[in-house]
Amino acid sequence: MNIVYLIGAGPGDPGLITVRGQQCLASADVVLYDHLVPARLLRHARPDAEKIDVGGAAPQALEQEAICYLLAEKAREGKTVARLKWGDPFVFDSGGSEALFLHEQGVHFEVVPGIPAGIAVPSYAGVPITYPGGGDTLTFIRGHEDEGKTRASIDWTSLARLDGTIVCYAGPQQLKTILAALVAHGRPPDDSAAVVYDGTLPIQETLDGSLEEIAKAIKPDERRPAILIVGRVAALRQHLRWFDARPLFGKRVLVTRPREEAADLVDRLEAMGAETIEAPMIRIVPPEDYGPLDEACAQAGRFNWIILSSAHAVDAFVERVLAGPRDLRSLNGAKLCGVGPATGERLARYGLKVDLTPSEYRAEGILRALSETGDVRGLKILLPRADIGREIVADELRKQGAEVTEVIAYRTTAVEAEREGEPDIYRMLLEHRIDVVTFASASAVRSFVRVLGTEPAADLLSATIVASIGPVTAEAASQFNIKTTIMPALYTIPALVDAIVEYFQKQS
């Protein structure tokens, strides 16, 4: 169906897009987006969708005309088009112009509202723009004109006299002028106000105080647009601020996990206020030869124990069981040992319950837990593992008389070089723009060192906090002269995040 969806993406936080907006984005053949739209939102688009950056959220007239023609052209090619726009398409934006053009061209379109910056940003700053006793009016002002655009025509005298809240989209060239105009036309200089830069983002910065104080506090060389809030409600920020009061607010944390499994760590860090930078150091790929794994899966029912040390091992093992003529009933009485809660959760997705979870999520803990179930002598044990997994478990079990079958279930490969559009980790570390580097596996450490070089990696991380998920990972780091500063007592992602939070709380 040839249709254009005009989608409001919200003012920055990728979580503020609506469910409908995400659905329309996922269905699109072509995505045209403002460069202010967060890159993470584009992951909701189909991998094969054509993605076109059309520049600023408020383009000049000729640029806007070109965008309109491009929308119509793509739709006439029979494609579903998503026009992803900063904020809301119909609030101080060109969405109305684009919709009217599409109407005149006979192109079907749908408008998917987004959360306007004037609504979301004050909320993230802890300012309720309406509140009992805060006045009876709420006024939004356009104040972000670019060079060449018609300046906003505002009756400052009437506006200054309104008893209520003013929310202004203030460009860097207009902010001081707007503050001065309000005071000059009758707004009390001691009236409460707040200026919010980079609203809803982890780098959000808020100035609050009186109109007079804020005018003095604005830096002469400030080039960022802002949301200006004027009115008694702005004084409530000191009681209601939440976004920038979270324990990791303002901290940049590097996440080195494979992209397909980074979501849990990223979500937990961002919930604590951190800005996450994803730089996968390893990729999970199938084994070069499925033969040994398939043979083990075909005989799974003959084993006494199947030890699964990671969620990847679970996926690889179960998928190959189901790839053949059998189903999970072929496991018969084989007991499952799952290392760590994430492994148990992944087994549960397939309807499988764990028989044994070691209290310590490492090789030594597995051996101790199995020994406590009884004599392992003569037991048949299957160990589907990574190609570079530790061999301690298999070796020690064999010493105790167990018959151990090891098969490669998956391989980990290094991400050798940064791809176009990926963050320049070397430069960010060199310029001390990363506060914490997280490692959730020894293989991630080794790949990190391979990408940056042994000496540069050790040198750069000597001035950066390193958080390792457990002793095996920390030991791998130490082999390259990388010191681990943060390590949780439990070797899990939630515990790792808690340990990072605890570290910074102690520092403050």
Keywords:
508 residues, alpha/beta, Cobalt-precorrin-4 Transmethylase, domain 1, Methyltransferase, Cobalt-precorrin-4 Transmethylase, Domain 2, Rossmann fold, 5-stranded mixed β-sheet
Largest β-sheet summary: 5 strands, parallel
Distance between the termini: 56 Å
- Separate helix tally: 19
Placed side by side, the strands forming the largest sheet appear as 3-2-4-1-5
Structural class: alpha/beta
CATH class of the largest domain: Alpha Beta
Radius of gyration: 28 Å
Summarize the structure.
The protein contains 19 helices and 19 strands. The protein is an alpha/beta fold and 508 residues long.
Task: Describe, in plain words, how this protein is organized in 3D.
The structure is a single chain. It is built from 19 helices and 19 strands. By secondary structure, the protein is α/β, with parallel strands linked by helices. It folds into 4 domains: 113 residues, Tetrapyrrole methylase, N-terminal domain (Cobalt-precorrin-4 Transmethylase, domain 1); 126 residues, Tetrapyrrole methylase, C-terminal domain (Methyltransferase, Cobalt-precorrin-4 Transmethylase, Domain 2), CATH 3.30.950.10; 123 residues, 3-Layer(aba) Sandwich (Rossmann fold), CATH 3.40.50.10090; 128 residues, 3-Layer(aba) Sandwich (Rossmann fold). It is elongated, with a radius of gyration of 28 Å. The chain starts with a strand and ends with a helix.
Question: What is the topology?
Answer:
Layout: E1 3-8, H1 19-27, E2 30-33, E3 50-53, H2 61-76, E4 80-85, H3 95-104, E5 109-112, H4 117-124, E6 137-143, H5 156-161, E7 164-170, H6 175-184, E8 192-197, E9 205-210, H7 211-217, E10 226-230, H8 237-240, E11 252-255, H9 263-271, E12 275-278, E13 282-285, H10 291-298, E14 305-308, H11 311-323, E15 335-338, H12 341-349, H13 363-372, E16 380-386, H14 392-399, E17 403-414, H15 425-430, E18 436-439, H16 442-452, H17 454-461, E19 465-468, H18 471-478, H19 493-507
Parallel strand pairs: 1-4, 1-5, 2-3, 2-4, 6-7, 11-12, 11-18, 14-15, 14-16, 16-17, 18-19
Antiparallel strand pairs: 7-10, 8-9, 8-10, 13-17
Helix pairs in contact: 2-3, 10-11, 11-12, 13-14, 16-17, 16-18
